[in-house]
């Protein structure tokens, strides 16, 4: 690597999520490529400090006061003292802070776009677009939405998300043959369409009592309580389980027959699909978002144009009745992710783009 990359990620989130895992995985991969990685996190957030210390040098400051503006002087000193070459941000909440840091230090500003949100044209957002050196879009869908009628289109690049395959080492784990396990992993929230998934499993369980559903992830307590009440009211409690947050995702995926992502809104990427596919588990989703950039219908997974409880139940039933089809999808899915969606692919393309 001819050019020296000294990269500072600013992470202002309060809880660990997909965006934070992205920064972690990218930092690890870029560090292995000779980049010097730094992460700025909010003071007193012990989880963020501990996790990011594994892959970068961590700087703590007050990122939650005035959208980080209170930390302007401290971050300016840090950037200068550590000769930071690139500043990477992941939310517009700290865009004003980042622009000021760019003006004061000359650092190159990189904005990673993780959401399917239309490009805005007001003065403030035009200011962000003008002062950002490069926008990284995690999928073609995000790129298309962001660059529509955008005079700064030349600043945008597509760098697909990727998984750290080291988190999913080879294993002989398999689903329990006494059951047919349907699974979901991700945030437990209304836009994820979990009501449709639960109802689909209720429909299937009447005919196939070996069906069980496992939901891994956390969510807002009020919504979690409502969803659990709905499960109880439908009589599904014996075969629907809420697993909570799990760090043993590889085992969770491998012990599942099919992983479903039934989102009601467009997904910016679909990292959980890639994780499950790499673990040789069949996947089902819909065509609302970037899932169709990952899955080839009936080749490496199943995509539904209109995902309803009934249509989802039909597709799961086909896998129940045709284990050879399920296994073929799982094998092709693993190869697809190994060839295209690993963190090594992401890191290499990111270095070319920034």
TrEMBL record:
This is Glycosyltransferase family 1 protein. GO terms for molecular function: glycosyltransferase activity. InterPro entries: Glyco_trans_1, Glyco_trans_4-like_N. The lineage of its organism: Bacteria, Pseudomonadati, Pseudomonadota, Betaproteobacteria, Neisseriales. Residues 16-167 form the Glycosyltransferase subfamily 4-like N-terminal domain. Gene3D superfamilies: Glycogen Phosphorylase B. Keywords: Glycosyltransferase, Transferase. It comes from Neisseria meningitidis. Residues 175-333 form the Glycosyl transferase family domain.
